[in-house]
Design goal:
This protein has helices spanning 28-35, 53-71, 84-95, 108-121, 152-161, 201-206, 211-219, 221-224, 228-231, 244-248, 254-266, 271-293, 315-322, 329-341, 346-359, 364-374, 380-391, 406-413, 418-423, 426-429, 440-457; strands spanning 14-18, 40-46, 78-81, 99-103, 126-130. By secondary structure, the chain is mostly helical. The protein has a five-stranded parallel sheet, sandwiched between helices. The chain is globular and about 75 Å long. The termini are far apart. It binds a DNA duplex through helix 15 and helix 21.
Length: 458
DNA sequence: TGAAATGTTGGGGCG
DNA sequence: ACGCCCCAACATTTC
């Protein structure tokens, strides 16, 4: 494309629509916008999935960080709410912009947004959507018979054969500002922060949202996950990357994470740890892949026979689980860590989820909804795929009869009890701790019995 | 990226 | 010395 810097700069501006890619470095949409040589109007439009209390808190700070970074370059983020086609059309007609650039998203509502955009604005605007969020776009990994994979391992093999991702471009791009005079909502107007009460104290202590915070976490990666293969299942040890919320909001790219792992490997991180960590990135790809190919993933079981599973709708038990008073220390510790910090160790997520779905037989969708509301890394694809996996109704092999014993899991993965004592202080303080709300052995039998109905219906 | 039930083996106590 | 039993350790099967 010709690059002409016209005196006085009368070139039509480009709209750069930020979505779940709230960073400047190694951002394909930013790169495309910069390469046009045209002035850029950075835009964010409040979206229906700006949902979930903890996630909204994060989003506020991530947007604030992006806006601050843009302001150091003499521009700023135009913040709107409403339907993207309407808002973007209004911006285009007010500024004479003739091009729109954004990173593609894979969630069902986002895809229909993008279709509407193409329909409504495709004639007036040159629309460029780029693949940027995954190692591989979801269409690229298919079976021989051109159907989507349903099981992780074959997916992983096929995706790995496509090679490693490109090296990230970690330089800070320069965005040419455009004098647009557009209205922008103050960030506060989006109402993303908790008001009264302000429950975000634990979140503030635990996290630094935004691209700077993400890069700091990435810098800490080599130390944090040096022994990932041995430590990743130990909630008492702090051996995971804690990158999930940064990745969810696109404050860093998957390529940057990949490169950081490879770099750590070349400086002494064991190969098995590096591989295990990279494998997690493929799990993330797989979740989005499943959501793309099976858009009902968030609400309907992929194994249809589970529609007849006799789930129990019990508000009191659900609340006991949510509030961390099930009487099972490892479960309660996890649920309290979640409530306090907006995050839960992955091993404990599996244990807590298994308890809800199998011991209490409460529908997995209710657990998924709670996680979406309380996790700072709340992510429709990862959350839906993981809950279906735990519930045994997903495509992957996690048979329903695999039932976690919360006591054994605690002994195995929190052998000294450090984790449970940290989050359930009454265990040591002598305060009253609830008796188990169900007997695990009985609950297990009941769940297996219920599973017979599903099997018989198959 | 389970756990419990059931089966098998082998060492050691003991009559 | 030998067979019998107990039971822990490990393996396999089942849910």
């Amino acid at each position: 494309m010709g690059f002409l810097r016209v005196a006085g700069n009368r070139m039509a501006p480009v709209i750069l629509w930020f979505r779940r890619n709230l960073r400047l470095r190694d951002n394909a949409a930013v790169r495309e916008a910069v390469e046009t040589g045209h002035p850029i109007i950075p835009v964010y439009i409040a979206s229906p999935d700006d949902a979930g209390g903890a996630s909204r808190w994060w989003l506020h700070h991530s947007l604030a960080g992006l806006d601050a970074a843009l302001r150091t370059q003499g521009t700023s983020l135009v913040i709107r709410s409403g339907s993207p086609p309407q808002q973007l059309a209004a911006i285009a007609s007010a500024t004479g912009a003739d091009q729109l650039i954004f990173a593609r998203r894979l969630e069902p509502f986002a895809r229909s947004e993008e279709r509407a955009l193409e329909n409504d604005l495709g004639d007036a605007l040159d629309i460029l959507s780029v693949d940027d969020s995954l190692l591989n776009p979801p269409e690229r990994v298919m079976t021989q018979s051109a159907t989507p994979y349903r099981v992780f391992t074959p997916f992983y093999r096929a995706a790995s054969r496509l090679g490693e991702p490109a090296s990230p471009d970690n330089s800070l791009p320069r965005l040419q500002a455009h004098e647009h005079g557009l209205d922008s909502l103050p960030l506060e107007a989006l109402g993303l922060l908790p008001q009264s009460p302000d429950w975000a104290g634990g979140l503030r202590e635990s996290w630094s949202p935004g691209e700077d915070g993400a890069l700091a976490r990435l810098d800490a990666l080599p130390d944090a996950v040096l022994r990932y293969a041995e430590h990743r299942d130990r909630p008492d040890l702090d051996g995971t990357s804690r990158l999930s919320p940064h990745l969810h909001f696109g404050e860093i790219s998957v390529r940057q994470v990949w490169a950081a792992v490879r770099a750590a490997e070349s400086r002494g991180m064991a190969a098995d740890s590096a591989e295990a960590l990279l494998r997690q990135l493929y799990w993330r790809d797989f979740s989005y892949y499943l959501l793309f190919h099976f858009p009902r993933l968030p609400d309907a079981p992929l194994r249809e026979e589970f529609e007849r599973f006799p789930w129990v709708d019990d508000r009191e038990l659900l609340e006991a689980w949510q509030q961390g008073r099930t009487g099972y220390p490892i479960v309660d510790a996890g649920m309290r860590q979640l409530w306090h910090t907006g995050w839960m160790h992955n091993r404990v997520r599996m244990i807590a989820a298994s308890f809800l779905v199998k011991d209490l037989m409460i529908p997995w969708q209710q657990g998924a909804a709670w996680f979406l509301d309380t996790l700072v890394d709340a992510d429709l694809a990862n959350n839906s795929a993981s809950w279906q996996w735990v519930a045994g109704c997903g495509t992957d092999a996690a048979p329903y009869f695999r039932i976690f014993n919360p006591t054994l899991q605690g002994q195995k993965f929190d052998p000294n009890g450090d984790y449970i004592r940290r989050w359930v202080p009454e265990l040591t303080s002598g305060e009253v701790y609830p008796a188990p709300i169900v007997d695990h052995a009985e609950a297990r039998d009941r769940a297996l019995e219920a599973y017979q109905l599903v099997k018989a219906a198959r």
